[in-house]
Amino acid sequence: MGNLYVFDHPLIQHKLTYIRDKNTGTKEFRELVDEVAALMAYEITRDMPLREVEVETPITRAKCKVLAGKKIGLVPILRAGLGMVDGILKLIPTAKVGHLGMYRDPVTLEPVKYYSKMPSDIGERDLILIDPMLATGGSATAGISALKDIGARNIKLMCLIAAEAGIERVQKEHGDVDIYVAAVDPELNEKSYIVPGLGDAGDRLFGTK
Ligand code: PRP
Ligand code: URA
After folding, report:
1. For residue 185, what are the β-bridge partners?
2. Helical H runs in the chain?
3. What is the distance between the alpha carbons of residues 104 and 201, in angstroms, rounded to a whole number?
4. Closest ligand 1 atom, residue 163 Cα
5. Has the ipTM of the complex gone over 0.95?
6. All domains of the chain, ordered by start, with CATH?
7. Pairing relation of β-strands 50-56 and 61-67?
8. Do the beta carbons of residue 155 and residue 178 sit within 8 Å?
9. Mean of the per-residue pLDDT values for the chain?
């Protein structure tokens, strides 16, 4: 079964509180999501491999470390995943970005895929699938399956808030995928929104209703 990592850094928790607050407007919501995404990227890259290089400092030669050239791919699930991309790119600016268009049918709650454009070398990249909300888990599991269908092998799932039901579903259907979240919420309501959650992430990011 994949691991679940909850990033409880005080800065992440502080910002997430204002993201949840219904009185936070679109501009501030977007800025906070961007900031939390960058902080989560810092944590999620902790296990990146390093290699040794030699550099000449103004004083002497020194053996130092640089990233070992792992290829990273970010895949936001449209729309809401887009809100986290720039924050992550601030820390991993060379990552390639694929886009997966998927929305949750409001009646059936089933994910509907409507767009996919991925880097051609997707099978060689470590992928981070990004979606702020993991509710029933339908969108994330369908997203992971879509990536595996085109050759992806190494996938991490990064969300702001995950419901326990969504975590269980991803772990059951994709036991090889680790999940990284800022918070785990206990419930879904009758419309399968996360409780307490933050409302509709896409609408709050883009000012739609
Ligand atoms: C939201 C959210 C996830 C999905 C989560 O997307 O961004 O993709 O719902 O729900 P699930 O775990 O039950 O599948 P939505 O369908 O609202 O589309 P949007 O991002 O375009 O607003
Ligand atoms: N999608 C959202 O945007 N919010 C939820 O709480 C659940 C699904």
Report:
1. 163
2. 10-20, 26-44, 82-91, 138-149, 164-173, 201-206
3. 12
4. 12
5. yes
6. 4-206 (3.40.50.2020)
7. antiparallel
8. no
9. 96
